[in-house]
Design a protein that fits this description.
The complex is a heterodimer of chains A (about 375) and B (about 290).
Chain A lengths: L15 H4 L9 E3 L17 E6 L4 E2 L4 E2 L1 H16 L4 H6 L8 E5 L11 H13 L7 E7 H5 L12 E6 L8 E8 L9 E5 H5 L3 E5 L1 E5 L3 E3 L1 H6 L10 E2 L2 E2 L1 H9 L4 H4 E12 L12 E2 L3 E5 L2 H18 L34 H7 L11 E6 L1
Parallel strand pairs in A: 2-18, 5-6, 5-10, 6-7, 10-15, 11-15
Antiparallel strand pairs in A: 1-8, 2-17, 3-4, 8-9, 11-12, 13-14, 15-16, 15-17
Helix pairs in contact in A: 2-4, 8-11
Chain B lengths: L6 E4 L17 E4 L4 H6 L3 E4 L3 E4 L3 E6 L6 E6 L2 H6 L4 E5 L3 H11 L3 E4 L5 H13 L11 E4 L4 H12 L4 E4 L8 E3 L6 H12 L6 E4 L4 E8 L2 E8 L8 E6 L4 E6 L7 E5 L3 E6 L5 E7 L1
Parallel strand pairs in B: 1-8, 2-3, 4-7, 7-8, 9-10, 9-11
Antiparallel strand pairs in B: 5-6, 12-15, 13-14, 14-19, 15-18, 16-19, 17-18
Helix pairs in contact in B: 3-4, 5-6
Classes of the chains: A alpha/beta (about 375), B alpha/beta (about 290).
């Protein structure tokens, strides 16, 4: 059933994790009229640099209450550390101009248990407004309305800030750009197109990505790349079937599509809470943990490389199998009802991060990552 | 061809329901032979049900795919039986009378619909809609020839070809004028349909649908233009559909069971025409001109 073709993109560099499946990539066709910027937003001005701020007081673990002043301080210190600027306004001006139309790509796939926290989003909005961006030119957006509604971002930001869900109904194509898409046949599915959110292609001049720190049953982890890729396109769940997922190459391919690649200028990873198994969803606290961290960068590959270690370390501490484990022994077979941190629904593909690096989205090699840590 | 289609109503309701018919513009109905006298006495034009071929209600069932987070819709379409040809007049259980009427109309067959009295207004609307669709004498377009041997396996093959929008003609022998000719095969019909699709190649498909798994299309045409009929088998309107046709057709006219709907984002190249529909109800007919 599957089309076995070589990808029309650069081959992956040799690596233990990825080489085994490199020869089995789907054939992608990208349709976009948008040209890349001379210096695309990804990996951006700070390739290989990740600023991480840890603030134990930022979240009260038993109640999951977030401390607003702590988050504001984390974001201030993180932005200064990332940019090397002395003034916060200057730091933000590295990424946005007053006349920009800014989309804030939040992650609500695990909402309301875990999502881009409203306090983080609200502080981002506050900083954008302080930088001169009009509230009416700020759009908090996500794909699915039901997930977004469960968060209630509107309660945290000025009324004139837009809250946009691209799909009122899960499979609705309205809200997506018919002329900007990736075409690929993964498993013989009839609808072979994944279209970009229309506001992203036609309206936003800048995008700020606000993912979470989460494990992901298909892609291994979900951080910057997954949120900016699957989170900006329609009809992406088709990339998984039975134990096979195509997240390995699809995530990077989607993130490369213009104008997403050029306009995504900043990633603010919300790690106040995290999910170490069962992601992207988190209906109960069973697999939640509380890093009380935020990471800042323009390089989604470098940030997700750090995230891999965070999730892997947490899984190890809980005695769970590695995110890199591809063993059939740990796969849930069709019809089986198994759960727990040593059972995988899909063969996970954490190699998607390195693959995205080979496409030019950022730095995967930890030795080349300038990882700056601050503890408040 | 579509102008000749006759859609009729059958009911098992008691004759006391007769007064509901005339206000809805329903002149005559079919009833069981032993009920004709009572219905006639109640003032209705009632005819005995003739010999019919019973068909299931068109629609969709959502079945959870155990290996995926998504719902895999299962479309119940009578299209393949209409294409193959029926021995008698189609008799269709019609909890959704608009879809059942539209399906028969799209395939150009007469049909008697079994409709509950509560749904008679919808039936009347459907008949009115169909009567208002401009007649078309355009031939059915297909570039796959299916050599039907009449077997049940062939029926399954045809069913999946219809549901995958692989446009075919039933032929008695391979037709060299068609891009691909295929024979029936037993086994997994979904796999069969995919192999036919691969054999043809997506680029050569006369029509493609993006944005829904529950919309089935029919295509007619000649040098004067194209007619696309879209049947939405789902339980609700499809919010956004992209249609791709081979050929250059910049002028569109649209009739929809949801009332006025305008096509958007028309893209016409020398080889293809694409357009989007913001709303796709049970029945949509699009006429395109070069």
């Amino acid at each position: 059933m599957r089309r076995r073709s070589f990808l029309t993109l650069p081959p992956l560099a040799a690596s233990a994790a990825a080489a085994a499946i490199n020869a089995d990539l789907p054939k992608y066709r990208v349709e976009s009229v948008y040209k890349p910027w001379a210096n695309p937003g990804m990996p951006g001005a700070f390739r290989g640099r990740v600023a991480s701020v840890h603030a134990p007081k930022s979240i009260d673990v038993p109640t999951e209450t977030v401390d607003v002043p702590s988050v504001q301080e984390m974001m201030s210190r993180g932005m200064l550390s990332l940019t090397g600027e002395k003034e916060l306004r200057s730091a933000w001006r590295r990424f946005v101009e007053p006349n920009d139309v800014v989309g804030l790509k939040v992650n609500c796939s695990g909402a309301p248990g875990i999502c881009s926290h409203p306090v983080v989003v609200a502080e981002t909005v506050r900083q954008l407004i302080a930088t001169g961006v009009k509230p009416t030119n700020i759009w908090i957006y996500e794909r699915f309305k039901d997930q977004m509604d469960s968060v209630g971002y509107h309660k945290y930001v000025p009324e004139s800030v837009h809250i946009l869900a691209a799909s009122a109904l899960r499979d609705a194509l309205n809200g997506y750009d018919p002329k900007t898409y990736v075409e690929v046949d993964f498993f013989g599915e009839e609808d072979t197109r994944s279209n970009m959110i229309r506001q992203v292609s036609e309206n936003f001049t800048k995008i700020i990505n606000i993912p979470n720190m989460k494990d992901h049953g298909a892609s291994g982890v979900t951080g910057c790349l997954k949120n900016i890729a699957y989170g900006n396109f329609h009809n992406v769940a088709r990339s998984h079937r039975f134990e096979k997922t195509n997240t390995f190459s699809f995530i990077g391919t989607l993130a490369m599509v213009e104008p997403v690649r050029s306009r995504t200028v900043l990633h603010l990873m919300d790690g106040l809470k995290g999910v170490w198994h069962g992601g992207p969803f988190s209906p109960t606290k069973d697999f939640r943990f509380y890093p009380a961290k935020m990471m800042f960068g323009t390089d989604p590959v470098a940030m997700d490389r750090i995230l891999l270690d965070i999730i892997e370390e947490q899984r190890q501490s809980k005695g769970a199998v590695s995110v890199w484990n591809r063993s059939p022994e740990h796969l849930i077979k069709t019809g089986e009802r198994k759960s727990g941190p040593n059972w995988n629904r899909f063969i996970r593909e954490p190699g998607h991060i390195e693959y995205a690096g080979t496409l030019g989205l950022g730095e995967y090699d930890k030795k080349k990552i300038d990882f700056r840590t601050i503890t408040l | 061809m579509l102008a000749l289609v006759l859609i009729s109503l059958f009911t098992e309701a008691p004759p006391s329901a007769a007064p509901q018919l005339k206000p809805l513009g329903i002149d005559c109905i079919y009833v069981a032979p032993d009920a004709v006298a009572a219905w006639t006495a109640a003032g209705a034009c009632a005819k005995p049900l003739p010999a019919v071929t019973k068909l299931p209600a068109p629609g969709v069932q959502y079945r959870m795919n155990v290996a995926s987070a998504s719902n895999a819709p299962w479309v119940n379409s009578n299209g393949w039986q209409y294409v193959r040809g029926l021995k008698n007049t189609a008799f269709v259980d019609a909890p959704n009378p608009v879809l059942a009427a539209a399906e028969a109309h799209a395939y150009g067959v007469d049909a008697i619909l079994k409709v509950a009295p509560k749904d008679w207004p919808k039936y009347a609307e459907a008949v009115k809609l169909i009567a208002g669709i401009p007649a078309s004498r355009l031939p059915v377009l297909a570039n796959i020839g299916f050599v039907d041997d009449g077997s049940s396996a062939a029926g399954e093959n045809l069913n999946l070809l219809v549901r995958r929008n692989l446009l075919f003609k039933v032929v008695s022998a391979p037709d060299p004028s068609l891009a691909v000719n295929v024979k029936p095969e037993s086994g997994d019909p979904s796999k069969y349909a995919y192999e036919v699709r691969q054999k043809l190649g997506d680029d050569r498909r006369l029509l493609r649908i993006y944005g829904s798994d529950v919309v089935i299309a029919r295509l007619q045409g000649d040098a004067s233009g194209r007619r696309v009929t879209l049947l939405n088998y789902g339980n609700r309107n499809v919010e956004g559909l992209r249609v791709r046709l081979l050929g250059r057709f910049p002028k569109l006219q649209l009739t929809s069971s949801a009332g006025p709907v305008e096509a958007r984002d028309l893209t016409v190249t020398s080889e293809t025409t694409e357009f989007s529909l913001p709303l796709v109800p049970s029945y949509t007919v699009i006429d395109l001109k070069p």
